[in-house]
């Protein structure tokens, strides 16, 4: 008797769709195949083994090396109403005994255990567990079993015998870092049986990469931190001394920053870590000693004050940002001087290693200096090709300027300046162009023909284009106290000779773009955060385990008012709704009342759909695979069959390509149907797909409606 993975996903975890390869992996495990999963940090590895265990009767054994992480996972499951316990050497034997009896009595769904505990005493525990109905064995951080990996742990080697003891049980090995050699080593050492391999893209789409010259790095850091109050971040430095010193500087400036490095007492280190995890300090200034075993999901930025030694380290450290999937930033300060210092530190070590280490350092330097997409460079280092030319979310990609034909815009701006007799500043000209009703606009100006011809552009757009027209000498700013706009040397040709003008696409501000979390009501967000902190104290867990920031942001943006609305919010499963829902609803209802607002729940479905299909222009490998089969002429049913995925999943994959204009709408929707779907969508705007479907009737499928919805806008 097994349950549907989608139902578990939404009822227990409160999520509405699987990410990346999750669904495929879960299907394969439910099929009793062994699996090897390579997925980056934050990719969602846990669900890959948690969902299948919950689909079936019996218990899942999860092998994990770090006590802190085990506790995290067990807490998270417990909060979602799932019976989970861990066993490790930090517990008394009474405690351990109790856990074991629960397992044997079939009262646990998950048992987390460290490899040394599992294999101790000649594998006594293994034999004990054979009396339980083990439905899955998961080996987390599986690279620890390989000497090729960077984190070899001898106790993992003992796990070799495990498969022989449980030949019928599916095994799943998971890791975020494994090259081909390590992967083969994992398979061999765990005795996996013809495992399916799932290699996800290592692209962290929600991390925005920036590299700045190191000159004045402190000042640049302060500027960077200015709009980040209350956000969590890690600032890495090379030396312990500079970690201490920088933390002190930040404290002096009123920033909640604490240092962390291997030279501190273990109590002080534990204290820093605790406070960080509980959102009591914002920033940890640390050497690379910090970060292992920290699962904090709402780290919004990671800064490297000094050049890291290699790309593996840089990727791992920056990867601690944005596990919750929200936009996050990675900022690195780069100088050739740093590279020299690191080079000197490497030189003189054992000759064989020296050349390897120098090679890695050179790659790191190249990353710092490249004008190419940082993401592409990073992924190429790990042997992955990034399919797009422009990632839209690194400093280099945003810096590239694109031009477009801006003749009409230029004509409007220039004739406005002319009509205003070259006597007004930029702001006035913009207000005039946009037809502002402000008192500042002189009465007689509102009669001019040019008044209001630039309504279609925002203030910001106008100010960018006018700056650009100035840069290109179509306009100029008069010197003197009041910088009024005048026609520049090239301007007249535009006004009288139809000269064409190329304008630059508006450059996005590299540092502030991605961190915009689009929180509609910041004050409510703060209230919900405080309430979350209180609940976390009561439950003795970290705040992000009660709800991630993402959940709070959805609450603030959609303003659910009914208990059932909560189930549509990401992260609200049934248990959390029942336990914490009322408290959150009360705060939201009050806020809505006091501010005369309305719920936006009507939007949630629509937004989620268009977001999930066109969130990024970047396609995942599983989407691409479906797309390729479709282009080869396979029907949707056939693709679903071949890939053992549901028809709905395949349709969603294809809709993604419709949304990003790589597939024509007619691939999924008959041309004759498009208009009526469009009409139904217009009529039911904001009410969700079901409302549109209701009008259209059974001749129209959800996929067709969704495809039309996604193809628009
Ligand atoms: P990993 O172990 O690969 O680093 P986790 O399993 O900790 O990643 O997942 C990272 C975060 O993403 C967690 O907060 C998790 O709850 C969330 N998450 C995972 N899968 C999904 C999903 N399908 N939808 C929404 N959130 C998800
Ligand atoms: Zn890029």
Question: What are the defining features of this structure?
Answer:
713 residues; alpha/beta; Rossmann fold; Arc Repressor Mutant, subunit A; seven-stranded parallel beta sheet; six-stranded parallel beta sheet; 33 helices; 17 strands; binds adenosine-5'-diphosphate; binds zinc ion
What features would you describe in this structure?
With 713 residues, this protein is of the alpha/beta class. It folds into five domains: 5-199, P-loop containing nucleotide triphosphate hydrolases (Rossmann fold, 3-Layer(aba) Sandwich); 207-382, Rossmann fold, CATH 3.40.50.300; 403-504, Arc Repressor Mutant, subunit A (Orthogonal Bundle), CATH 1.10.10; 522-599, DNA polymerase, domain 1, CATH 1.10.150; 604-712, no CATH class. 49% of the residues lie in helices and 11% in strands. It has 33 helices and 17 strands. The strands form four sheets. A seven-stranded parallel sheet has the order 3-4-2-5-6-1-7, sandwiched between helices. The structure holds adenosine-5'-diphosphate (ADP) and zinc ion. Zinc ion (ZN) binds next to helix 16 and helix 17.
Secondary structure topology:
Elements: H1 5-13, H2 22-30, E1 35-38, H3 45-55, E2 59-63, H4 67-79, E3 84-87, H5 93-104, E4 110-113, H6 115-129, E5 134-139, H7 154-157, H8 162-165, E6 171-175, H9 180-189, E7 196-199, E8 207-213, H10 217-225, E9 232-236, H11 240-252, E10 257-260, H12 266-277, E11 283-286, E12 299-304, H13 311-318, E13 328-334, H14 336-346, H15 351-369, H16 374-381, H17 395-399, E14 403-405, H18 407-419, H19 426-433, H20 459-471, E15 475-477, E16 485-487, H21 491-497, E17 502-504, H22 522-539, H23 543-546, H24 549-558, H25 563-566, H26 574-594, H27 601-614, H28 621-631, H29 636-643, H30 647-659, H31 671-683, H32 689-696, H33 702-711
Parallel strand pairs: 1-6, 1-7, 2-4, 2-5, 3-4, 5-6, 8-13, 9-11, 9-12, 10-11, 12-13
Antiparallel strand pairs: 14-17, 15-16
Helix pairs in contact: 2-3, 14-15, 18-19, 19-20, 22-24, 22-26, 27-30, 28-30, 29-30, 30-33, 31-32, 31-33
Zinc ion binds next to helix 16 and helix 17.
């Amino acid at each position: 008797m097994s349950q549907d993975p989608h139902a578990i996903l939404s009822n227990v975890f409160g999520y509405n769709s699987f990410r990346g390869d999750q669904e495929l992996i879960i299907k394969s495990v439910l099929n009793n195949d062994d699996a090897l999963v390579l997925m980056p940090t934050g990719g969602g590895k846990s669900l890959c083994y948690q969902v299948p265990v919950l689909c079936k009767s019996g218990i899942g054994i999860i092998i994990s090396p770090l006590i802190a992480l085990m506790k995290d996972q067990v807490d998270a499951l417990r909060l979602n109403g799932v019976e989970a316990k861990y066993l490790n050497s930090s517990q008394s034997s009474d405690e351990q005994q109790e856990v074991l009896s629960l397992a044997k009595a079939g009262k646990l769904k998950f048992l987390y255990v460290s490899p040394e505990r599992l294999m101790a005493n000649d594998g006594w525990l293994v034999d004990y567990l054979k009396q339980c109905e083990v439905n899955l064995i998961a080996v987390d951080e599986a690279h620890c079993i390989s000497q090729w990996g960077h984190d070899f742990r001898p106790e993992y080697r003992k796990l070799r015998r495990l498969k022989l003891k449980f030949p019928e049980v599916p095994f799943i090995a998971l890791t975020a870092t494994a090259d081909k050699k390590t992967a083969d080593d994992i398979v061999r050492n765990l005795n996996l049986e013809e495992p399916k391999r799932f290699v996800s893209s290592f692209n962290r789409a929600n991390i925005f990469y920036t590299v700045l010259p190191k000159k004045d790095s402190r000042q640049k850091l302060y500027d960077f931190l200015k709009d980040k109050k209350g956000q969590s971040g890690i600032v890495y430095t090379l030396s312990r001394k500079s970690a201490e010193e920088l933390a002190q500087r930040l404290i002096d400036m009123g920033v909640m920053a604490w240092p962390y490095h291997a030279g501190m007492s273990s109590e002080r280190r534990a204290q820093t870590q605790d406070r960080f995890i509980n959102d009591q300090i914002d920033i940890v200034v640390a050497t690379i000693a910090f970060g292992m075993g920290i699962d904090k999901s709402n780290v919004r930025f990671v800064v490297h004050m000094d050049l890291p030694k290699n790309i593996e380290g840089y990727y791992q450290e920056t990867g601690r940002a944005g596990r919750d999937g929200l936009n996050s930033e990675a900022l690195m300060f780069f100088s050739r001087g740093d590279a020299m210092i690191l080079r000197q530190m490497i030189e003189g070590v054992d000759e064989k290693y020296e050349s390897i280490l120098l090679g890695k350092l050179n790659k790191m330097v190249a990353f710092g200096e490249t004008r190419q997409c940082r993401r592409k460079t990073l992924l190429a280092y790990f042997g992955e090709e990034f399919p797009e030319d422009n990632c839209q979310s690194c400093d280099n990609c945003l810096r590239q300027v694109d031009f477009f034909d801006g003749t009409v815009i230029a004509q409007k701006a220039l004739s406005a300046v002319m009509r205003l007799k070259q006597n007004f500043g930029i702001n006035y000209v913009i207000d005039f162009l946009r037809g502002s009703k402000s008192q500042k606009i002189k009465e007689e100006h509102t009669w001019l023909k040019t008044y209001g011809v630039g309504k279609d552009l925002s203030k910001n757009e106008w100010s960018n284009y006018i700056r650009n027209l100035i840069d290109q000498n179509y306009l100029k700013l008069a010197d003197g106290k009041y910088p009024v706009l005048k026609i520049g040397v090239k301007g007249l040709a535009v006004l009288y000779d139809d000269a064409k003008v190329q304008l630059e696409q508006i450059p996005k501000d590299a540092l502030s773009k991605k961190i915009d979390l689009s929180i509609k009501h910041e004050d409510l967000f703060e209230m919900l955060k405080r309430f979350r902190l209180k609940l976390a104290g009561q439950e003795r867990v970290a705040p992000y385990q009660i709800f991630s920031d993402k959940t709070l942001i959805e609450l603030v943006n959609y303003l659910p008012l009914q208990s059932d609305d909560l189930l549509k919010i990401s992260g609200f499963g049934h248990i959390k709704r029942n336990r914490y829902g009322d408290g959150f609803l009360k705060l939201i209802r009050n806020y809505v009342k006091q501010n005369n607002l309305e719920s936006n729940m009507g939007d949630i479905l629509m937004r989620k759909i268009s977001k999930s299909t066109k969130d990024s222009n970047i396609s995942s490998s599983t989407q691409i695979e479906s797309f390729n089969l479709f282009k080869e002429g396979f029907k949707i049913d056939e693709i679903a069959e071949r890939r053992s995925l549901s028809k709905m999943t395949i349709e969603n994959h294809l809709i993604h390509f419709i949304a990003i204009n790589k597939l024509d709408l007619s691939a999924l929707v008959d041309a004759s149907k498009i208009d009526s779907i469009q009409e139904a969508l217009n009529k039911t705007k904001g009410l969700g797909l079901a409302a549109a479907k209701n009008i259209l009737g059974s001749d129209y499928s959800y996929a067709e409606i969704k495809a039309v919805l996604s193809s628009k806008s």
